[in-house]
């Protein structure tokens, strides 16, 4: 049987061998939810970059620049990090260069993986179905917050593990922990999240609509993945 493991923060990634695994990178609030929403609704591709300066350089080449630092849109960029920005009419058919505090960094740190998928609650079942069909072990990489654990990415890991119990064995206690956490939360994710750090951070910035949207399950049937050359597109 294939195995699934959960890396609870990018700081722990060096403990995992990723080259023989499909990695699902997750940053529920909000980077991978925004990528999912954009790719599902007509954005042509997204280039995830770790640093603001690299994003500015792509902006100078004509790409739309998107992203945040500490939840706030980077000055001079066209988009912030709201999933609603990525579903707007003016971004359809475009390639977006994107940098975020944790999400795009986690994608970069996972670069040695066999394949990198972009996971969110918005495309939970699509990701689960793809993982069932392919032959490799899976690793969920939680983007967390500045190297630390966070609640929302771990909840996603638990939701994914729950969907895969017939196809994957849990390979570590992190997978088991995330599974149990999701059992405690799944009947009211929004309420469960209320005291979490990033919920409070975004609420302080008056971004509660994004949280509700990012916690909705299976809004889209899309599997965004990183292709050679560094762009995220939809699997056909
Ligand atoms: C991140 O990558 O750290 C997040 O997506 C932050 C945010 O909510 O904008």
How many domains? The number is 1
Q: And the CATH topology?
A: putative 2-phosphosulfolactate phosphatase
**Largest pleated sheet:** 5 strands, parallel
Distance between the termini: 26 Å
DSSP helix fraction: 25-40%
Q: Provide the spatial order of strands within the biggest beta sheet.
A: 7-2-8-1-9
Give the number of helices: 9
The CATH first-level class comes to Alpha Beta
CATH architecture classification: Alpha-Beta Complex
Using only C-alpha atoms, the radius of gyration works out to: 16 Å
Shape: globular
CATH superfamily: ComB-like
Report the order of strands and helices: EEHEHEEEHEHEHEHHHHEE
Q: Please give the oligomerization state of what you see.
A: single chain
The fraction of residues in strands falls at 15-25%
Number of strands: 11
Give an overview in words.
- The protein has 236 residues and is an alpha/beta fold.
- The protein has a single domain, classed as Alpha-Beta Complex (putative 2-phosphosulfolactate phosphatase).
- 35% of the residues lie in helices and 22% in strands.
- It contains 9 helices and 11 strands.
- It has helices spanning 31-40, 52-60, 103-109, 124-133, 151-163, 173-185, 189-193, 197-204, 208-214; strands at 2-7, 21-26, 45-48, 64-69, 72-73, 95-99, 115-119, 137-142, 168-170, 224-227, 231-234.
- A hairpin with a 3-residue loop joins strand 10 (224-227) and strand 11 (231-234).
- The radius of gyration is 16 Å and the shape is globular.
- It starts with a strand and ends with a strand.
- The mean pLDDT is 96.
- The structure holds D-malate.
